[in-house]
Structure formats: structure tokens, C-alpha cells
Amino acid sequence: MRIMNRREFETSIHTQLEKGGSYGEYLELDRILDSQHPKSTHHDEMLFIIQHQTSELWMKLMLHELDAAVAFVKASHLEPSFKIFARVAHIQRMLFEQWSVLETMTPTEYLEFRDTLGRASGFQSWQYRAIEFVLGNKDPHALLPHQAQPQLQAMLKARLDAPSLYDEFLRHLARKGFPIPKDRLERDFSQPYEKSAGVQDVFRGIYEKPESNWAAYEMCEKLVDVEERFQLWRFRHMKTVHRIIGFKTGTGGSSGVGFLRKALDLTFFPELWDVRTDLKKQG
Whole-angstrom Cα distance, residue 37 to residue 45? Predict the structure, then answer.
């Protein structure tokens, strides 16, 4: 008996679809798949465009999730945010792994179409900036590339001025009776966070007695997870740029690799890292 190398088509599968009810229409694939418009004839420009477009989609989801986490922390509901951070971890992994696809492009191939970017640069990604603001990397100068888009600049300014995820966590701890210094709770949130010995003392107490502070202890580790993955993403970005353009200046006017390397010195949650040096075995 001859066996056909074909799966039987099930008659229950819907083939008569009303307008607006198909997979492609639900996802608006016509718009998404018609959004790649290379400005050169070089084969690898398509890779470059799709790499950055998909990164922006993952960042959109990451920002959506982080905003939800901030809302939970603001309401002093830490536990529901833990599921969100688990999802954020996987999104960060996807963003990290995408660099390996771009690294299949050689320096020679990139030079074939690099001039078509003009002054366009990833530094101008407003979603990346919004994520940094949510996580606490505040810098008013980061608004400058968006001056030509008043609505977008206003949205980013609101995020710049709002308490970060870390700020809201410190506020939560204060509501729970932890002695968070007042100057960390009431400050200009548009400015970079400055670490505090008082905050570090609070975290030392949480880490020394996790069984008495389990939700706060778990939240501390979730934040460290987020920052570690973010730093790995930054590092991979820097090394990818180094691999493809060396020490050339960036299309956006930055020093390129040198500018990206400086970002590795920035810390979102400084006391959560510093407290590890102070901890001693209990009992």
C-alpha cells in the first residue's frame, strides 16, 4: 500500500472567511509586511531594517509590561508583578539574541548602504528612551533628538518627570514601614537617582532576613535580574557595533563604540548591587 506524504485536510477547517476575520487582517500583516523600504539595492539592507523593526516591536511589549509592573508596585501589590518580570526576562532574551542575526552582516556589506541612513540612529529610538526612563536612567538631554515632534517629546517628558520603577519600589517600602530616607521619596524625579546609605541599610536588613520580608526580597532580585539582562543587551549592542564599524563615529553623531561603552557604567538600582558587598553570613 502506498502511503501519501501528505496530511489529510480536515473538512472542519474554516476556508470561507468574512472580511476582517482572517489571520492576516487581525494582525494587520499588510501594513507590517509593507513597512520595509530599503533605500539602496544592497541585499543586506533588508536585514538591517527588519532587525531594528522587530527590536522596536519587542521594546513596545517590554514597555507595556513594565508600565503594568509599575502600576502594581504603586498599588503595593508586588506579587502580581513577579509574573510580569518573568515575561520581561524572555523579551530581554529575544532582544539580546537578535544581535547574533545582525552580526552575520560583515563590515563591507554594511558600508554598501550605510550612507542611506543619513543621520538616523538607534539613539533616536523613543521607546528605548522610555524604557530607560521607566527603569530610572533619567537625563533631560535625551529629549533633545525629539524636538521636532512636540507630542512625542511631551510624552517622554512626562515619563522623565514621573517616578521610576525603583522610585515606586522605595515608596512601597516606606509605606510598609521601612525607614527609606525622605530625600529619596521626595525629589526631582527627572534627575538621575543618587544612591543613599540609608536605602542600602534597608536592603541589608531585607537580605539578612528574607524569611521576614519575602515579597520585598523577591522584588529586589527581580530588579537585579532586569538590570543584569539590560546591561548584557547594552554590551552585546556595543560589541556588535564594534564588530561591524570598528571605531567609526555613529550615524547619529556619537563617538560610536566609545559612547556605547560609557552606558555600561550606568546603574539603575545602585544599592541593590552595593549591598552584596556588605552582606555577612547570619547565625
Answer: 9
Residue 17's contacts (CB-CB under 8 Å, 6 or more residues apart) are none
**Of 168, 179, 183, 95, whose CA–CA distance to 135 is shortest?**
168
Instruction: To the nearest 10°, report the CA torsion of 59, 22, 20, 62.
Output: -10
Taking the C-alpha atoms of residue 183 and residue 247, their distance in angstroms, rounded to an integer, is: 41
Q: Are 270 and 193 in contact (CB under 8 A)?
A: yes
**What are the backbone dihedrals phi and psi of residue 2, each rounded to the nearest 5 degrees, phi first?**
-85, 130
Is the separation of the CB atoms in 107 and 248 below 8 Å?
A: no
For the chain, the distance separating the N- and C-terminal CA atoms, rounded to the nearest angstrom, is 75
What does DSSP assign to residue 158?
H
Distance CA 111, CA 40 (A): 11
What's the CA gap between 148 and 171, in Å, rounded?
A: 35
User: Per the structure block, which three cell numbers stand in for 121?
Assistant: 540612529
Nearest to 240 by CA among 111, 94, 104, 89: 104
- Nearest alpha-carbon partner for 141 in 122, 120, 156, 162: 156
**Whole-number Å distance between alpha carbons of 11 and 192:** 61
> Per-residue confidence of the chain (283 residues) as pLDDT tens digits?
666 788 888 888 788 888 878 999 999 999 999 999 999 999 999 999 999 999 999 999 999 999 999 999 999 999 999 999 999 999 999 999 999 999 999 999 999 999 999 999 999 999 999 999 999 999 999 999 999 999 999 999 999 999 999 999 999 999 999 999 999 999 999 999 999 999 999 999 999 999 999 999 999 999 999 999 999 999 999 999 999 999 999 999 999 999 999 999 999 999 999 999 999 887 6
